[in-house]
Specification:
mainly beta, seven-stranded antiparallel sheet, about 5% helix, about 35% strand, Tectonin beta-propeller repeat containing 1, Peroxin/Ferlin, TECPR1-like_DysF, repeat, Tectonin_beta-prop
């Protein structure tokens, strides 16, 4: 608690009390006749409503007095006879006016606003002499006429003059409660029933303005104007229009204002700002439950409420951009009312015991705190039987959380005849005082004992007579040294009569002194913490909390202020046990790519609100707050609806794309960026954890997970559900949640047994060991290993020939950029080209790349008649098929292909420059040396199947076909490679159900490997399969009974006629175009990476799509479901074997003899 902070409270009898951090005791207000009903405080003053329904003000004492300056102007006009006189023209202003001259202000019109003010001296001329005798000028200013610009210099044409008179009045009621006067010349408002102040943090100016709101008996809302530091009482009350009658109002330190209506509903005020402190409109907020709200408390960015059943609720998502919030969360405890502190600290009055409570654990992050702790400071001014004061040490422990130093509390025994006495501990033969003194000095950390007060002996005898069980009269019969007694403290642990409320503690007291009677704490009715500033860094000793977990609100100081009512104690324990949910808030600043035109980066405040605790409906929400056209707005995303967090690199900023189902359909993700990589990694990790927690996902992907890779090399996984492939109700692709796995790879393949292989951009093979898979995953310290990847970044240097200078970088206006990417549509120079993401670093310089398809000359140049044309299909007539468009483009560009030699018709040339970059990170991956790979495939199977060895096939960088031996679920990396002979290099390979191995050579030829089995993992020979007519295939994928392939023109083909006896099939059937890659799973499900999304031509290439309608009798499916998109390059669904119950597939064709097989055996 800050040294200058103060807590105010009112008991049920209307008595006001204050609690300072320095004193540690409740002090009653000096005016004993003042009775208050409500109080509201700030760090400078406190307002209250008396039982007479009048408003009272208590301004805290300060070394700087509150002085208000009154000023008026004396005006004169010159005439030839008398010179400057008070005789003015009829059209002139009055003799005494304000500065504008429009309002008369004679000296006698200034009166004190109330009896709380007094004058400081008399009126004097303001001539910069600060009240001293006027100088030669007399303080006059001269001008030609009214109104005009006045100057201190008198000229020949100065016909009028004026001077300013000043007088100061001082507020003299500092440190005391003073009645706020009624508005002059206005009828008094209705009697007030509630009051709340706030708004002092609304402006950044040094002078803090306080805005006061009040509620009258008729349910009207009033606003106090003119409250300033030099005018704490304000000027007048103004009514605020409210659609219904108001019962209670609460204003926050900034621009939040809520009211409770008579029917239990709530209203939030919108449009409040420093220029319009009264706001503009109301928004209705439904109460937390059907019983309705009875109280609301507003802080900086939080709102708490109490319903009619005394339950406590917290409002989520409250912000100046969204003053109504988003939803209610139940918080443990039963309270009558709540009050907010300057740092969103929470105070309250218990509904059962009428005790003041403090919400422990409230920080800027943990906005709801953890538990309620009783404020257990005792009343100041302990009275003895002879009404003499006893000097005791100040109570430094204000909040009780455990039994602490027993010297800090009330003296044992209370002679208050109004309440029954507690059962006093039994006294043994030793001295009672000895036990108290020894107990006081026992703890090493206790403060030193205070001096024994001197009390007459006869008064002490009177105190003994009041309770003979405490001290025996025989022990005081002689004047010798008093005997000592022991107090059995064990009995204090038992129950105490229910009517007792006194605290028990010890003080060193001599027996000849009188006993001190401590007045009990009254039942509280109201508390305000607006002026009590407790920061999260406050010393924990002030709270006496040893256990940071939930605390019982019945804990009190010293030996304990035992709650003697069994029913009350049970209610308090129930209040503490009900602490179930909490809200954690993380705030930061990021850049947001604006959705509307002109699209640009916008600075936003980001808030992640997480709900934790037992029974919490995980409803984490991400808020983006921004200001547009001086209007506060916000965008939010429910974390449970977030489908992917994809890292991207844009405009030299660390950027992430946040996808939701709706934004996936719109092809417009939320783009958030940070200039710092550390902030980016922190937010990405935090959002990933929140997304996984909201879906109950573990740290590592399951064996059934679907794997994907983006163009940046980021590895993403999705945990499938049975509804994903359900034949009746499909899970839409836009609802699939993808999360990132630490790695940077080119492709990933998996199966349902948990075997996952990946290939990096430098063609290094990696095996996933996460989830305690593999022999190296015996401990968490062995799971994460160093992962590195190297890739090349390419740019093109373009030149055009002219007769004068030959090939130069001076192109035609219609040409591409002279330094560009492969398409020529984007300018890429050596200086502005960056690595794929900030995680990559350059490891080489730019160099000419001679390994370009089509060949180069000795300098790396490629030649063509003209630069290739890139056609946008958007304006093409819809009746023209895409297949026809591709043929048209191929004809147009046939003479524009680049080759490695120069001809007489070649007017343009280009050469490719390459630069290598490297990334290093850690993850649960194991490197598989030493052969570099370009493609890998793992046998897809059902989850319940068991294999001694899992078949893994691959293609080396040289085009050799390899078979991995020794691969098991416990050893996913295998033992060794087995070379499978071929007569030409291959580029794609895939193994499917029944050990079907299909492959594609680099020239586009298709092959099927025969006789592959578990006992013969390498098979016997290759069978050549005819390709689709006039098409060159580039990738193949095999499922349980289906084979799909993609050609160089992005067409998807399906192999017809596959049977167990005829595994090569009969013919190819065109299924779709616009396909980059295909993946067929163990259930014959078909997923692709699409090139473009229909209707979104600006969408980047690479969209995840699902083939709908795939059934055993309809393996080709019916249509496509487009999901998340934008630069996704690889997808593997070969581990997803989760399926709904369905009939086993039946072979669609009869068996054929060997002579019917369409394929010829090829020598190995």
């Amino acid at each position: 608690m800050m040294s200058g902070s103060q807590l105010w409270a009112v008991d049920v009898y209307g008595r006001g009390f204050s609690l300072w951090a320095a004193g540690g005791r409740w002090r009653r207000v000096a005016d004993l006749l003042l009775e208050l009903k409500r109080v509201t405080g700030s760090q400078h003053c406190c307002w209250g409503i008396g039982c007479d329904h009048q408003v009272y003000l208590h301004v805290y004492p300060s070394q700087v007095p509150i002085r208000h300056q009154e000023k008026t102007y004396e005006n004169q006009r010159w005439n030839p006879v008398d010179g400057y006189t008070d005789t003015l023209l009829p059209t002139d202003r009055w003799q005494w006016t304000d500065e504008s001259g429009l309002n008369p202000q004679p000296l006698h019109s200034f009166v004190l606003p109330s009896a709380n003010w007094e004058w400081e001296g008399d009126w004097y001329v303001d001539d910069e002499s600060c009240g001293r005798e006027s100088s030669e000028t007399g303080g006059w200013e001269y001008a030609v006429d009214f109104p005009a610009t006045f100057t201190k210099e008198k000229k020949w044409n100065s016909c009028v003059r004026r001077r300013r008179w000043l007088r100061y009045r001082r507020y003299k009621a500092l440190g005391s409660w003073a009645k706020v006067p009624l508005d002059r010349a206005r009828p008094p408002p209705e009697p007030f029933t509630d009051i709340s102040c706030g708004g002092w943090d609304m402006s950044d100016s040094p002078e803090k303005h306080i805005y006061l709101w009040a509620v009258s008996q008729q349910g009207k809302l009033w606003f106090r104007t003119g409250i300033r530091q030099q005018n704490p009482e304000g000027t007048c009350w103004e009514p605020i229009q409210v659609p219904q009658e108001v019962a209670q109002v609460s204003a926050g330190p900034k621009d939040l204002l809520w009211v409770v209506l008579w029917d239990g509903q709530l209203l939030a005020r919108t449009g409040i700002n420093k220029d319009c402190p009264k706001g503009s409109s109301w928004e209705l907020v439904q109460p937390p439950n059907q019983k309705g709200a009875v109280h609301v408390a507003v802080g900086l960015t939080v709102v708490w409420a109490v319903t009619k059943d005394n339950k406590v609720w917290f409002r989520r998502g409250v912000n100046s951009h969204n003053p109504t919030g988003s939803g209610w969360i139940s918080i443990g405890g039963e309270m009558l009312m709540l009050s907010m502190g300057p740092n969103d600290q929470v105070w309250g009055v218990g509904s059962d015991d009428r005790t003041v409570y403090f919400r422990h654990g409230v920080t800027a992050t943990e906005v709801t705190g953890r538990s309620w702790v009783a404020v257990s400071a005792q009343l100041d001014g302990s009275a003895s039987t002879n009404h003499s004061s006893v000097h005791v040490q100040s109570d430094a422990s204000v909040f009780a959380g455990e039994v602490t130093t027993p010297s800090q509390g009330s003296v044992l025994g209370c002679d208050d005849t109004d309440i029954p006495k507690p059962r006093v501990p039994k006294i043994t033969s030793d001295s009672f005082i000895s036990a108290l003194v020894s107990d006081r000095s026992a703890p090493a950390h206790d403060p030193p004992s205070v001096a024994h007060p001197s009390v007459p002996e006869d008064n002490q005898m009177k105190s003994q007579e009041s309770d003979s069980s405490v001290l025996s009269p025989s022990s005081l019969s002689d004047g010798s040294e008093t005997p000592w007694s022991n107090v059995d403290l064990e009995e204090m642990k038992g129950s105490v009569p229910s009517s007792t409320r006194s605290s028990v503690a010890t003080y060193p007291i001599e027996l000849q002194h009188n006993t001190v009677v401590q007045e009990e704490l009254p039942p509280w009715a109201w508390v305000t913490g607006g002026g009590c500033d407790i920061s999260s860094s406050s010393h924990v000793d002030l709270f006496n909390i040893s256990d940071p977990g939930p605390l019982s609100p019945s804990i009190t100081p010293a030996l304990s202020a035992l709650d003697t009512d069994t029913r009350t104690r049970g209610a308090q324990r129930e209040r503490d046990a009900s602490v179930e949910k909490s809200v954690r808030v993380t705030r930061g600043c990021m850049c947001w790519w604006r959705d509307w035109t002109p699209h640009q980066w916008e600075d936003v405040s980001v808030t992640l609100e997480q709900v934790t605790g037992a029974g919490a409906q995980t409803g984490d929400v991400l808020y983006l707050y921004y200001t547009h056209d001086q209007e506060k707005k916000y965008v939010y995303a429910v974390i449970k609806e977030v489908t992917a967090l994809v890292p991207v690199f844009r405009d030299s900023l660390y950027t992430m794309a946040v996808y939701t189902p709706e934004r996936t359909k719109q092809r417009c993700p939320i783009l958030l960026a940070t200039p710092s990589q550390q902030d980016f990694n922190t937010w990405l990790s935090l959002l990933n954890e929140s997304c996984c927690a909201s879906r109950g996902l573990g740290e590592h992907p399951s064996k059934q997970a679907m794997w994907a890779v983006t163009c940046k090399g980021d590895v993403m996984v999705h945990e499938p559900s049975p509804s994903l492939e359900a034949p009746a109700q499909y899970l839409p692709c836009e609802h699939m949640f993808w999360r990132q796995v630490p790695a940077h790879l080119l492709c990933v393949e998996s199966n349902s047994l948990g075997v996952v292989w990946g290939i990096a951009h430098d063609h290094t093979a990696w095996v996933y060991t996460g989830g305690s898979r593999g022999p190296s995953a015996q401990g968490n310290e062995n799971l994460n290993q160093a992962i590195s990847d190297v890739r090349s970044v390419y740019i093109y240097e373009n030149q055009r020939w002219n007769p004068m200078t030959g090939y130069t970088d001076k192109g035609l206006p219609t040409d591409r950029y002279m330094w560009s990417d492969a398409s020529g549509l984007r300018e890429c120079t050596k200086d502005n080209t960056r690595p794929p993401s900030p995680q990559w670093t350059w490891v080489s310089d730019w160099a000419v790349d001679f390994g370009v398809p089509g060949g180069t000359d000795k300098e790396g140049w490629q030649y063509a008649a003209d630069f290739p044309v890139y056609v946008d299909f958007k304006p093409i007539n819809r009746t023209v098929t895409r297949h026809f468009c591709l043929k048209l483009i191929s004809v147009l560009c046939s003479f524009r292909t680049f080759h490695g030699y120069k001809t007489i018709k070649d007017f343009v040339r280009r050469r490719r420059w390459a630069r290598k970059c490297k990334i290093s990170l850690t993850g649960p991956w194991q490197k598989v040396p030493p052969i570099a790979l370009t493609d890998v495939t793992v046998l897809p199977c059902l989850a319940q199947c068991s294999l001694e060895q899992v078949p893994v096939w691959a293609i080396s960088e040289k085009g050799d076909v390899l078979c991995r031996l020794g691969v098991t679920t416990n050893n996913p990396s295998g033992n060794s490679w087995l070379h499978v002979g071929t007569d030409q290099p291959f580029k794609s390979i895939c193994i499917g159900g029944g050990h079907q191995v299909w492959a594609i050579a680099r020239d586009g030829a298709v092959f099927y490997r025969g006789s592959v089995s578990a006992h013969n993992p390498a098979g016997e020979c290759w069978y050549h399969i005819p390709s689709p007519p006039k098409q060159t295939l580039r990738q193949v994928s095999v499922g349980r009974t289906s084979v799909y392939a993609v050609d160089e023109n992005s067409n998807l083909w399906y192999r017809q006629g596959l049977t167990p006896s005829y595994p090569q099939g009969s013919a190819w059937e065109l299924i779709s175009s616009n396909v980059c890659k295909v993946s067929v799973g163990p259930l014959d499900q078909v997923w692709i990476i699409a090139d473009k999304v229909p209707g979104y031509p600006s969408e980047s290439s690479g969209t995840v799509c699902h083939r709908l309608g795939v059934k055993p009798m309809q393996p080709k499916g019916l249509s496509w479901d487009f999901g998340i998109g934008g630069r996704w390059e690889h997808l593997s669904v070969r581990g997803n074997s989760i399926e709904a119950q369905r009939v086993a597939p039946r072979s669609p064709m009869p068996s054929r003899t060997q002579s019917q097989v369409n394929g010829n055996a090829v020598g190995c």
